[in-house]
Amino acid sequence: MSMEEKTLLITAAGQGMGRASAIALAQAGANVIATDRDRDLLAALPDIDGRLQAKVLDVTDPDAVLAMAAESLDLDGLFNCAGMVHNGTILDLDDAAWDASLNLNVTSMVRMIRAFLPGMLNRAKQTGSVSILNMASMASSVKGFPSRTAYGATKAAVIGLTKAVAADFVGQGVRCNALCPGTIDTPSLRGRIAEAADPVQAEKDFVARQPMMRLGTVDDMVPMIRYLLSDESRFVTGQALLVDGGVTI
Ligand code: NAD
């Protein structure tokens, strides 16, 4: 099935990798529902021949998730991109910070998949194949990083969730994979650099952990995202795909 026939929904499409993939997938011909909690960011999305539809969705709002699933067409693809970084070791992590990371990084994906999967199963009966993509990270069960306790633990849970969903629905035409990027130059990374005590050193440190000696770009991520949401990846499921510029060589 071609991209032109697909309807895809992306969370956190207001900026960063979600935005870049929403634009690229609409340019590839898909009908894309670009969602974010930030109305202003959505308003700045370009028009791509009417194929990029922006809708406000805070993925931590269970009622809003259910309402969007009820009003949406049955999806061919769902990209759960929303997530956050808590900076700190376990000694810096109080219950409120842990709950916030778990809620956005994991529970929101559980709710999104649970809400949209029945429609996706209907669609899979017609087309044979639908795809769920969950945003994880190289900082997860794959590799530990300093000051990333809540982040690493919750992104590891995303990989576990991905494999569980893939195992349960592999016989019904549903594929489910996780993307594990390296350090990517996005607005939130720029925010983490700006908030550091020494921003110049902080940027150098982020670059130094990438063996190619540069940050990744959103355009480095888009081809893998497009692949995983297209039928080209029809024999790929339950995988955590690393696009990390060689960090985990
Ligand atoms: P970003 O962090 O710059 O932007 C995040 C977007 O998420 C914003 O538009 C924001 O409005 C939206 N958002 C935040 N909370 C939301 C909510 N509750 N509901 C809906 N939207 C919400 O973008 P990014 O850096 O590309 O990160 C996107 C994803 O990629 C995250 O899950 C992040 O953990 C993951 N990731 C990022 C990097 C990196 O280095 N940037 C690396 C690996 C994984």
From TrEMBL:
A Pfam family matched in the record: adh_short_C2
Q: Which UniProt keywords apply?
A: NAD, Oxidoreductase
Give the record's family classification: Belongs to the short-chain dehydrogenases/reductases (SDR) family.
Specify the protein name: SDR family oxidoreductase
Origin species, per record, is Yoonia phaeophyticola
